[in-house]
Amino acid sequence: MAKQMLAAVVVLSACGTVMALSPMGPPTASLEQGQFSLGGNYFYSEMDLDVDVLGTLDDAEVQFIGTTLSYGISEAWEVFVRLGVTDIEFEDWDSGSEFAYGFGTKVTFLEGDVVDWGVLFEMNWFEGEDDGTFLLDTYTVSDPDIDGYEMQIAVGPTYKGDGMRVYGGPFLHFVDADLDFTVVSPALGGVSLDVEEESVFGGFVGTEFDIAENALFNIEGAFTADAWGVGFAVAWRF
Predict the structure, then answer these.
(1) pLDDT of 82 higher than 90
(2) Whole-angstrom Cα distance, residue 116 to residue 76?
(3) Per-residue buried b or exposed e for 197-215, using 16+ beta carbons within 10 Å of the residue's own CB
(4) Which residues pair with 153 in a beta bridge?
């Protein structure tokens, strides 16, 4: 068990992932039918991960930088795609930048003069691999490979003020990944582990401001019992 835990630390740190909280924005649709929105996102988060039956890896730090393209199918329904890169740090390891992508949708199910209510769903996929060999204590680990997905489901209100919106509510956060690597010294062969989130239920809150005609600025925070994150975004509607 000790050898697998040490190897898991190395592999998770050497492979870039998005196994962390991701930006959500308001849970309600905000685009007109046929309208697009293009924005840039930055999000920093820390979380604990449950590695199979071996235990918890604490305080993985993840930074996400990317872009989000949204489209209004109707005034109450929009969809979006996200492309970007992530960087993960754990103890003395830094993955560098790795490609990440995802998609999502927002639906307003109750519209009011001041407050709208909506639901959000998003998924992000990640993978990482490294052909190197890593030495930690007496164990040599090679050929780490990880792939999986992250899913977030949120529901809540959006308060509509003069040139700004405030939103928040509860959300669910899921991580499911397969982690494969080889312990070459001592010759122990291949190891395959399941990686999951430590906590599922959390909350989020954010504010969105109009900074120019068709231009928005957003700042947001999210947390679960074993993770937290904060970030911002700038977007243009057209």
Answers:
(1) yes
(2) 10
(3) bbeeebebebbbeeeeeee
(4) 121, 172
Question: What confidence tens digit (pLDDT) does each residue in 187-234 have?
Answer: 777 776 677 666 789 999 999 999 999 999 999 999 998 889 999 999
137 exposed, middle or buried (CB, 10 Å; 0-12, 13-18, 19+)? Answer: exposed
Q: Which amino acid is at 38?
A: L
Parse the chain into domains and list their residue ranges. 2-237
Instruction: Quote the CA–CA distance of 59 and 38 in Å, as a whole number.
Output: 32
Backbone angle region of 59, left / alpha / beta, with phi > 0 → left and psi within -120 to 50 → alpha = left
- CA distances to 88, 89, 206 from 94, in Å: 6, 5, 29
Residue with tokens 């039918």: 33
Flag the least confident range among 90-94, 107-111, 139-143, 148-152.
90-94
CATH tag for 2-237 (out of 3.40.50, 3.90.320, 2.80.10, 2.40.128):
2.40.128
First to last CA, the chain: 55
Distance CA 192, CA 182 (A): 9
Query: Could you give the CA distance from residue 16 to residue 13 in angstroms, rounded to a whole number?
Result: 7
Q: What 3-state DSSP class applies to 68?
A: strand
Best CA proximity match to 7, nearest among 189, 196, 149: 189
42: how many CB neighbours lie within 10 A of its CB? 15
Please state the pTM of the whole predicted model: 0.82
